[in-house]
Amino acid sequence: MGTTSALRHDQGSGPGRHPDGGSGRFGLIARHPLGWMLAGMAGVGLLSGLTATGPGPVPALGAVAAVAVYWLVMRRVARRSTPEIARSGAAREVLLGGTIGLVFILVSALLIRALGGYSFTWGNDGVLSVAGTAVAVQIGAAVTEELLFRGLVLQALEQLWGSGAAIVITALFFGAAHMGSEGANAWSGLAIALEAGVLLGAAFLWRRSIWFVVGLHFAWNVTEQLLGIPVSGHAPNGLFIVDVDGSNLLTGGSFGLEASIIPVVMSMTIAVVMLVHAHRNGGIKCRRPAGR
Question: What is the gyration radius of the CA atoms in the chain, in angstroms?
Fold first, then answer.
């Protein structure tokens, strides 16, 4: 996949316009990676907070609005193109990412079950209502979180300090963001940073597509929720009832599957493969030279 396009500067002139295409000092600050990162986080974060727990299709509608806000910030504030949210090939990227996310969670859950950690009982809930709610909620979560962490934070930090620093910092932030969840502790925060922060970051560097990472994230969360496994500490209304037995290191305890050692090891293995492909495709960026 091609790398993210460089900043695009408006060359127009006129009253109040700065020669570099902005509006004086404010324009320079806004087009700095940290400037447009914070502007985008404010907009997308506000929408997420207002719609994430809404009824029916509200989370999904919030996701659509978040994409529009992201596009506006990138095009009007950052002055850059947005190939990472291009409609062309989006369905393919979502499907590919979703397949990886589905297989990753199913294999992790089945391995834990084989080792005696999980047992599943059909919950007898309405399949369509449970599945519909899960899809709507997790679309909102996957889209807004990926726009925030991979679209805004990772790309901004990558411009400043390169891909390596960006993926480490965003992974740590992603782990910290889940520390307030039910059953969270130092281990669960580290586990989320490694298996989700690093894996999703590597997925973006490989494909350079938000849709690919959204597909992976969405399928991951929906599969967990439908299996009845807590999603990052949030008790789900799933299709199955899960009985947990064994050590928390195996099962993840009340935090859920993400705090199990099995998906941590699996995700790091997948992430290494993705990073190798990203390096071969030129998707790994070096630190930006000083003074640029």
Answer: 20
Of 213, 207, 175, nearest to 274 by C-alpha is 207
CB 97, CB 203: distance < 8 Å: yes
Which amino acid is it at 134?
A: A
pLDDT tens string 5-14:
333 333 333 3
Q: Distance (Å, rounded) from C-alpha 145 to C-alpha 205?
A: 16
d(CA 161, CA 287): 4
What's phi and psi for 81, nearest 5 deg? -75, 170
- Tell me the three state secondary structure of residue 8: coil
Among residues 50, 52, 51, 82, the alpha carbon closest in space to that of 68 is found at 82
What is the per-residue pLDDT across 220-243, written as a single tens digit (0 to 9) for each? Answer: 999 999 999 998 888 888 999 999
Please state the separation of Cα 153 from the chain's center in Å: 11
**What is the rounded distance in angstroms from the CA atom of residue 45 to the CA atom of residue 164?**
25
Q: Report the predicted TM-score, pTM, of the whole model to 2 decimal places.
A: 0.88
Tokens at 118, concatenated? 């999980």
Listed residue (139, 135, 145, 141) closest to 225, CA to CA = 135
pLDDT tens-digit readout, 50-109: 999 899 899 999 999 999 999 999 999 999 999 999 999 999 999 999 999 999 999 999
Q: Which residues are registered as beta bridge partners of 242? A: 120
**pLDDT tens by residue, 10-54:** 333 333 344 444 556 767 778 899 999 999 999 999 999 999 989
Map residue 243 onto helix, strand or coil.
Answer: strand
**Residue recorded with tokens 């910030």:** 73
